[in-house]
Structures are given as C-alpha cells and as structure tokens.
Amino acid sequence: MNVNIPKAWKDKLNEEFDKDYFIDLVAFVKTAYKNHTCYPKGKAIFAAFEYCDFEDLKVVIIGQDPYHGANQANGLCFSVQDDIAIPPSLINIFKEIEQDLKLPFPKTGNLERWAKQGVLLLNATLTVQAHEAGSHQKQGWEKFTDQVISTISENKEGVVFLLWGGFAKKKIKLIDTSKHYVLTSGHPSPLSANRGYWFGNKHFSETNKLLESLGKTPIDW
C-alpha cells in the first residue's frame, strides 16, 4: 500500500506514517489485497486526499466504510464510480439536495466534483473486503482518520463538518467547535431517512450560507 497523498496532507500527517499502528495497518492491507478481493482499488485508497487539496478544504463529510460491492467504491465516502447504480443512501442525499436547493437529480453517483471544490469525503475505514461490510474495521484505519479530523480542526478555521448518523456524530469530540461549524442529522440510509431523521435537514443550503458568510465560494452540489 503506497501512501500516495499530496504533499500538503503528507506534511501535516507525516508523524502518523512512522507509528507502529500505521506500519501494522499497511501490512494488514497489503496482505488483505493480496489474498482477497478488496475495495477500492489500491490506487484509490487515498482518493479523498488526492481530490480535495488541504489548502482548499471547506467541508468535511464523514462516512463509515467503503462500499463492498463490485466496482462501487472509488475512495470517496458515499460516492460510486461512473456507470454504477446509485446506492440507497446516496439516492436520499440527492433527494434532499433536490428539495433543499431545487437542483435536478444527478445522472451519476460519482462525487469527485464535490471533492474538487473542497469537500473532503472521508470514510473512517478506507478499505474493505468484497461483500463483507466492516471487514477492515479496528485494524488502525479509525486511528488514522481520527487524526486526520483532529489535524483539520487544529490547522484550519471555518470548516463545515457534516456529521450524519450516530457513528459520525461521535467525531464531534475531535473538532474544535469554537472555530468550526458542525451540522448533524440522522443518516441518509433508508432505515434512518424513512423514520424522518434525514429529509429536511437542509444541510446543503446551510453549508453554503456558512461558506458565503466567511467569504468563501459555495459548493455546487
């Protein structure tokens, strides 16, 4: 596993790569990819950092695991590769954007366009074995991605964190809320959304209002 992330990120996270837990994590991931089908493809494991430059970072969305179906995951949370059916949670995200911003439903579930505008689409666990949700949890990824969140909190100002669902909401302890903005709601999964915990949160218009109040360009969702 090559840690192929841009220099601005690497400079901020450099100490992590020499720690025992990360060395063990690299060994685990290499073995897993050698012996099993895993997602995303090796070159896309750190795609969230490649598409969203540290200097341009404006918004953070936190997911849990990559999709574990064939050719779905592209290294960005909630996002799928072009020409792949849009998963249920992402359908509900797009429906909320439709209602909130009166934008048309997208033709693709590939969220690279968000990432390029400064949205870090960060899964807590960056790899997964095919058809086995959560199979790479508790191997060190969470420790690394928690450090990513803490690093953003310490080194940036005015970042909007979108925490959807119980798992993501726990990450608020890593965020300095005196200098960042945190919006929370239920998860966009059908189970949560159909119970009324997702639709109507208006996170996309709220995010853009916050960005504009800081003199930043809003996100074209």
TrEMBL record:
Catalytic activity annotation: Hydrolyzes single-stranded DNA or mismatched double-stranded DNA and polynucleotides, releasing free uracil
SMART domains xref list: UDG, UreE_C
Every Uracil-DNA glycosylase-like domain range: 50-211
Cellular compartment(s): Cytoplasm
Transmembrane segments: none
List of catalytic residues: 65
Main location: cytoplasm
EC identifiers of the protein: 3.2.2.27
CDD domains with a match to the protein in the record: UDG-F1-like
GO molecular function (one): uracil DNA N-glycosylase activity
Keyword set includes Oxidoreductase: no
Source taxon at top rank: Bacteria
Keyword Cell wall biogenesis/degradation appears in the UniProt entry: no
Family: Belongs to the uracil-DNA glycosylase (UDG) superfamily. UNG family.
Function: Excises uracil residues from the DNA which can arise as a result of misincorporation of dUMP residues by DNA polymerase or due to deamination of cytosine.
Name of the protein: Uracil-DNA glycosylase
